[in-house]
Hints:
F-box_dom; globular; F-box domain-containing protein; LRR_dom_sf; two-stranded parallel sheet; F-box-like_dom_sf
Amino acid sequence: MSSNTNADIDISSGSLQPKSQNVVPINQLPLELLQSIFELASLSPVDPATPWRLLLVCKFWRVIVTSFPLLWTNIAIGNGSPNPDGFVDMGARSIFPVLMSYLRFSSLLPVNISVSIRGMPRHHSPLTRAHAGVLSHILRRLSHRIRTMTFTFDSWEFYGLLTEGLTHVQMPVLIQWTAEYVNGPLVIFNEGFCAKNLDCRFESTVLTAGTGRPHELVSRGIALYPNLWYLHLTSTPMSWDMFCPPNLIELHIHDLPPRYRPDAIQLAQILELSRDTLQILELSGSIFQDSALENVHTLKLGFSLAEELGGLFPELKVPALRSLEVNNLDRKSTWFDLAVTPAFQALAMFLPLHQLKHLRLDCITFHLPSNHLPNPGSGQDPVSLAFFKQLTSLTSLSLYSPDVVTFGCMNYSPDILPALQTLKISTPGVNYYEYILSFWQERARMPAFRMLEHLELTLPMCAEGRAEEFVLRKEVFAKRVVLDYQPDMHRSAWMLQDAEMGGDDVDEMDNAEIDESEDGSGEMDED
């Protein structure tokens, strides 16, 4: 047992302490900082007719914003972007004055576009189907300048309307495409939310063309996005018929509905074209055959059925693997733990776990009778223990909502995780407190255990005194301990709840306007 005087304790309750800053003249600030200030202060104008409030600051700032097109290359579009006094029939300048000014003053530089739309496309919404049609036409006209494209939405219909103009369109400078559906898998896997069912049937063919994969279509697909490096799709409708980027570095397919996942032939073609460049791969139940990815060092796997991972192995070979993330996509399922055993059996058999440096497990629950591990030497190890025994080079482990079996495997013997230096544990509920406390005590009392360099705990609402008591203990097994928690404002109610839960396991615009916005950078009015 070690004394807590040897540990560096850092407790954070989420409050931010003000820091003193030196005043620097605005004309001496780095361009990157000016750009950040510009983006923050130019959004959501009080009067849409005079959108540039920054022009009222000082003449130095006025010169800066009119002289540097780079300041205008990061464009944010949201529900408040349309001018409430504008009319679709009057064109894009009437509906989106701020957006059109950005396009005008960014000259011909590549632009980064971020679209965050919440809600369904209804006539009473701030951003309607007609607005989405105008935006889609703008994006089509800008396709040769779009460098990064980010969508955050909770309506597949909005996503389809906005991206319709980009279908079959070449985007030569596009390096990143990110699309995230924020409603989560409960909707896309048809487990409720009946009001959303119609919206979830909306099809999208963005980034694709054609209906087959003959050689000539693949060649056309390569030409569409020759410089696309990063693709992030989260719960997003997608058609893969002619998606053939040749130089992907990161491919993230996260929580996609089964009908929108690439089939074996499509995924094999995508991976084959990026065999020499792909470094990070995230799959959600995609199945393919005979793929050896020599440069992939990070693999992220999400699944809800064991068969989904079983279809990946042994065909998937990642000899350079250093980082692994395994994600439970169906966290409310009562039978998911039955899928963990065969899934992790495949991982332990076909992945080079002995060379892993980083591992993250999200909501992984192992199935064992009474949640008890067998005594050493009593027979064949369960899959969970066999998995942890292979992690001989692991230095960093992150656990979100770990179960009792996971803690038990980590404390099974000093030979488990011999190289571990950093441990991060996050919990979704206060009833995990006792599990972590028990793990803490057993780990610290284990003979010949190795002291961790860093232990980080992220807890939900926790009474302030109890949180500090948690880390200021005599049993210490880490040189640095960081506790981040949300202070509980109703201590007595929280303690009562904790006592009760302690036993649970828990349309169209004028082309002339777009051409005008790109042909000249223009000058702002002096007023």
